[in-house]
Fold:
Amino acid sequence: MSRRALLSAVVLILLMIPTASSLCAGDARTLHGEFVWTARNNSGDLEAIFTPTGEGTWDVSFRFDFRGQPHTYSGTAEGSLTDGALQGTVKNENEKRTFTFKGSFKNGEFSGTHAETTGEGAQSTGTLKLGG
Structure:
């Protein structure tokens, strides 16, 4: 086999090996639950999609309707999706508002709080629950 043919074969084999990011992309986990927005006296269904980015780190998207309008807030999270603490930060669609969430999983159920962060610190906005 010529050197050029061998090099072409090696490149082809390397292209066929899945990368770590492509392996992680297939491992997204979707959880369903509800949110309560205390100050606005509003609540609703919540879908959270967690895509692993590393050991105990995730990209997260929260999908929900608020006042009849669909929303997706996206950001990052760190912690466990099975048992223990989980926290993260997400932004609204135009990235002008930032929210944090924190809580923990117990027996497969997440219970936590969310807050809007501004220059004045975090202002509690309500609670959220998620399950399998």
